[in-house]
Amino acid sequence: MKYTAEQFEEINSLLLFDIQNPLDGIKAHSNAKTETISAIKRLFDKDLITQVDGGYLTDSGKKAAEQAHALLGFLK
Question: Which sequence spans correspond to the domains of the chain?
């Protein structure tokens, strides 16, 4: 099974978070790519982030972001 384009964009959005600094959130501005804005909203709907336009990682979101960063590290 391959990642869908939507899942890939969600993973890329999780990589925007600095997992070493939980007080460092993100904000999807209105001029961001439509795909990114949609991915961030889906992360909010999945309770991985605190705001519909970004915010901070939830506990589950922190785990997901850590896994995304780890996978990227393995692939480098």
Answer: 5-18+29-75
